[in-house]
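Researcher: I'd like a candidate sequence for this fold, 213 residues long. If you have to choose between options at a position, lean toward the conservative one.
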């Protein structure tokens, strides 16, 4: 049991350090990190930081991941006819699109989506009380996904592909780099804990008594 817990702890630290490398340099490169997750599977904790990133802890303590805007298949897909609820700003812009089906805002506007664009034109269109309406979507609006995780939308200007070449390179390389640094740090900690490296003098030799020959 102790061995299993030790493995989970060590593996978790390695993954978190690795993903933090991607996270940190993505931020520095102007790439939106939509979610920083520790663990896999259903979420048990979620918090949206002031930086727009959703920080989540998930039930299986193995692994973790970083969701970068425009990276891989990280897109928000809403099928035509999907029922959503919209929370609006005082100016009438959409600041939250709720896909979870849970009632999060008493003043939310129900809509059946017919068209949307959260990357370029930033709008959502659909039927509201049998009348088709179009709303502008705020640049920093959030989407509440089916599992209840709330993440920022990903306009083109904060997506991975719009970062500089250097930004993309350092973001990709940062994970392995962090693991290498972690290995060096652990190595030196172990050396100091053991009292340093033993001084083995290879120039010394023993003279055997003549009778032992």
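Model: Candidate sequence:
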């Amino acid at each position: 049991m102790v061995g299993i817990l030790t493995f989970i702890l060590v593996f978790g630290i390695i993954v978190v350090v690795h993903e933090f490398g991607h996270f940190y340099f993505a931020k520095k490169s102007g790439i939106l990190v939509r979610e920083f997750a520790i663990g896999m599977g259903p979420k048990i904790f979620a918090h949206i930081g002031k930086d727009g990133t959703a920080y989540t802890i998930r039930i299986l303590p193995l692994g973790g991941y970083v969701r970068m805007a425009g990276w891989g298949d990280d897109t928000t897909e809403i099928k035509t006819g999907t029922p959503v609820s919209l929370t609006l700003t005082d100016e009438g812009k959409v600041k939250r699109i709720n896909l979870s089906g849970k009632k999060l805002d008493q003043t939310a506007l129900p809509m059946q989506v017919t068209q949307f664009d959260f990357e370029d034109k930033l709008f959502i269109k659909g039927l509201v009380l049998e009348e088709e309406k179009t709303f502008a979507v705020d640049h920093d609006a959030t989407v509440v996904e089916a599992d209840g995780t709330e993440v920022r939308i990903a306009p083109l200007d904060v997506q991975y592909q719009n970062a500089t070449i250097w930004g993309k390179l350092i973001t990709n390389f940062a994970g392995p780099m962090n693991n290498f640094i972690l290995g060096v740090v652990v190595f030196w900690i172990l050396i100091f804990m053991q009292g340093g490296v033993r001084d083995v003098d290879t120039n010394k030799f023993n003279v055997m008594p003549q009778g032992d020959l």
